[in-house]
Amino acid sequence: MKITSIEDLKRIKEEAQKRALLREGKAEYKVTVHMGTCGIAAGARQVMAALLDEVAKRNLTNVLVTQAGCIGLCDREPLVSVERGTERVLYGDLTPEKARQIVASHLVNGQIIGEWVVHTER
Predict the structure, then answer these.
(1) pTM of the predicted model, to two decimals?
(2) Which of 32, 91, 101, 103 could be joined to 54 by an S-S link, Cβ 3.0–4.6 Å?
(3) H or E element in which residue 87 lies
(4) What residues contact 88, with CB distance under 8 A and at least 6 apart?
C-alpha cells in the first residue's frame, strides 16, 4: 500500500490499534485459539486469521481474541474456546470457515453451534 497523505497514515494507525485491541483489550467475549504444535499442524493459524478477520470486518469491539498452548485434545484440533462470564464453550475440528460461522452465530447472535462443541463449562 502506498501512503500518499497524512490521512492514509492515520487510517493505517487506527486499523493497527483496532487489531491490537482485539488481542489485548478487555471484552465481553474472550476467544482463545489453542496453538500448540498439534494445533498449528492442524490449521490453528488459519483459524486464528479467520477469527481476527471476521471480528475486524464486523467491527466487534466486545471480543478479545488470544492464543494459548495445547490443552491435550490433539485429535480434535484446531480447538477454540469461547468464554463469556463463567460460561466456556470449547469448539473442535475447526476450519477457517467454521471459525467465521462461530463469530456470526455465537459472538454476534449468542447461539452456540452444538454440533462443533467438544465441551461446555458453566
Answers:
(1) 0.79
(2) 103
(3) strand 87-91
(4) 81, 82, 120, 121
